[in-house]
Each structure stands twice: as structure tokens, then as C-alpha cells.
Amino acid sequence: MKMWIKLGFRNLWKNRRRSLFTIAAISFGFAAVNLLGGFTHYVFRGLEDSYVYAYGNGHMSIFKQGYLKEGALDPTSYLLDASTLRTIIKRCDEDARIVVATPQLNINGLVSNGNSSSIMIAEGRVPEDAQLIRSHGHGFIGKLKMFRGAELSSGDEGGVGMTTGLGEKLGLGLDSNAIVMAATVDGFMNALDANVVQVLDAPMDILDDMLMAVPLSFAQDLYETQSADRINVLLSDPDDKDRVMAELARDLQQAGLSVEIHPWDELRPSYLRIKNMFDVIFSFVFAIVLIIVFLSIVNTVGMAVLERTREIGTLRSLGCKRHDVIAMFATEAGLLALFGSILGAMVTFACWAYVTWSQPTWTPPNIPKEVPLEIHLVPWLFVASLCCLMILASTAALVPARRAARMNIIDALGHT
């Protein structure tokens, strides 16, 4: 094997111009795959972190059994009562892997400026818990503020947040007074005074003229209940999600509670759609790169076979077996892939360093403001790309190498 590697080095150097072009093609393919993979990894992480941390939803949510299927038709029948909330939160507080378990109550109704009103939907959360969840975000997500103005506070029940579009529709801004109206859980109309203390950035345009954020106590007072529709759970380590979910489900079932637990990605179907789209794009680009590498190797090795026919005849006459000739060309192809991958890794690092240094920004579809654009370095993708290219290169060399190995020794020696 050592001899074939040494011969491979010499033969590549002898045809260094052709080898250089092949190495360049492989390196740019390697860099393209890893840069796209790094950007895709960044997008996936951003989608997860924005939902889990920036929007305060945690890694999983606990609902009353049937809430997701029937709750939209009759939400008040699928609320978790105060006793159930205490039991679940107590169980979560006993688990060191859980950072916080916090109740949430989504409400809908009308908001008025005194003269006109508009439909609103609002998320009622414990403000301090929402801030705690946001502070655990990675990178820029932990510093991202999805609003202008002051933080909501449990001590200021009337302080609410309102999206820009809803505020413009009603002529309301920071420090404006409003009236929020909704039907209670018993079906009676209720109204509370509110003061706009923050202007929200809506996650989607369709929500810009109706979304509000309120303290949990405000939502419960408006609905005249001490219940909530879910409990959001944040974990210290996301990798513990499946284990914690299984243990929670078992313990809560043993406690006689009829609940269901769903991970964050089940509650956000758009994540899987976006992930599948990027997976298709990545697979398409990777397939193109593999085809380019395959054709480049076949062309390079094929030309080498034509130019070195007499050399092949000499080696065969000296006792080299057919499989030795095939191994020689496969080794050369593998070296081309290795050098191309090393150069490609250097190109990838250079692009990553430039993006990190220049700090470009963009507005992703799930975050309504400019955020830093990043490219992640994904170690397993580097290794997988190298292995795939090495195997593909060696395989691509088999076609011309087998043809060379089957040459008649006398004809090969007399080739001109």
C-alpha cells in the first residue's frame, strides 16, 4: 500500500496541471456542500431557537388530553384547572433537567380605543418566566428582543403588548390606554382596562393586525378563571427531551391526570416543511457535486491510462497483477479526492472566517427583524463529505483502471 501511495504522488506530480484542475473541481464541490450544509444547520438552529427561546414556548408543552384536536371548537372545556397546574409544575420543579415549567393561557376577543374596536388574539404568559426562557437562547437569540418598549411584568397586570399593525389600526402606541373585552369561561362578557407598554414584532404578517401579549394574570382575570391551556417546559439540555417526555407522561398518568405532551417541533408544522425543503435542496446540490467529481475523476484517470499504457505494460511484465494496476489508479484517484477535500476545507474555513468577520445581516422568514447571518462549521459533515468523495473517486477510477488492467502486455509495451 505504501508503494502505491508513493507512486500515486509521483504520477499526480508528473501530470500536475491536470491534477490541479481536478483537485480544484473537487475542492469547490467540497466547499459548496459544507457551506450549504453549514447555512442549513444555522437555519435549522435558528428555527428551533426562535420558537423555543425567542417566543418563549420551551422544548415541550403539556395539554389536557384532546386539546389539540378539539380545543379549537371548545377551548374552555380543555383548560388545565388550578389543581392540575400545581401538580404538574410541582412534578417539573423536582426534575433537575427542567429549567422552568410555566403556564400559558391563549385568549381571544376585542380590543378598543374607546371609539373603534378590532379582533385580537393574545398569549397570556408569566412575564418573568418568558424572560427566563429567552435568556437561555443561544447566540444572538438570547439577546433578541421581539418588541420595543418595556418588559411585561406580573406586578403591572394592565401592561400589555400590541403588534405594530394592530396599534396603527386603532391609533394606539406606547403608553396608550385601551379596553380589552372577551367572553369569560362561563359565557359572560368581561372587559379590562389596559395600557400599551410594548410594541410587538409579529412573527407572521397575517398576525400583525391582531396579536397581543398579556401577563397570565391579565388573561385569567379577563376569562375569570385560574386555569391555563398549557404548560410550557424548558430543558437545560434539549437532548434530554424524549427521556423527560416519557418520564413526565408516565408520572402524570400515575397521578391520575389526563394530559398529553408534545415536543416543540410537533407544535410547529412549518419547521418540518422548511426542513424538508432544505433537505431536498441540499441533496440536489450534493448530487450535482458527486456527478462533477465522478466525471472529473473518470476523465483524469482515463487520460492517465492512455498516456501511461507502456508503463502499465512494463508493470505487468514485471509481475504486477491486474488488481495491482487497478489499486494503483484507485489510489491516485483517492489522493486527488483527499487533496481536493483538504483544499475545500481551507476554502470553507476562509468563507466562514469572512462571514464571521463581516457580520452580514438578513431578515429570515420566522423572525421579523434583521439578524446576523452565520455559517456553522459542522464536523460530521466534513467527515462525511471526505469519506463520500474518497469512495466515489476510487469507484470512478475503476472503469478506466479495469480497462488498463486487461490490456495485453505485448500490445501495451508496443503502444505509441
Q: Quote the distance from N terminus to C terminus.
A: 30 Å
The DSSP helix count reads: 14
Which stretches are low in confidence, meaning pLDDT under 50 for 5 or more residues running? none
* Bulk shape: elongated
Beta-strand percent range: 15-25%
Total individual domains? 2
Task: For the largest sheet, list the strands in their spatial order.
Answer: 2-3-8-5-7-6
Major beta-sheet overview: 6 strands, mixed, barrel
Average of pLDDT: 85
- Report the strand count: 12
Helix content: 40-55%
Rg calculated over all Cα atoms:
31 Å
- The helix/strand series, from N terminus to C terminus, equals HHEHHEEHEEHEEEHEHEHHHHEEHH
Could you explain the architecture of this structure?
A hairpin with an 8-residue loop joins strand 11 and strand 12. This protein folds into two domains: 192 residues, no CATH class; 192 residues, no CATH class. Strands 2-3-8-5-7-6 form a six-stranded mixed barrel, surrounded by four helices. It has a two-stranded antiparallel ribbon with strand order 11-12. The chain is 55% helix and 18% strand. The protein has 14 helices and twelve strands. The chain has 416 residues and is an alpha+beta fold. The model has no long low-confidence stretch (mean pLDDT 85).
Question: What's the layout of helices and strands?
Answer:
Elements: H1 2-14, H2 16-54, E1 60-64, H3 67-70, H4 82-93, E2 98-112, E3 117-125, H5 127-135, E4 147-149, E5 159-163, H6 164-170, E6 177-183, E7 189-200, E8 211-215, H7 216-223, E9 230-235, H8 241-254, E10 259-263, H9 264-267, H10 269-307, H11 309-317, H12 322-358, E11 361-362, E12 371-372, H13 379-405, H14 409-413
Helix pairs in contact: 1-2, 1-12, 2-10, 2-12, 2-13, 10-13, 12-13
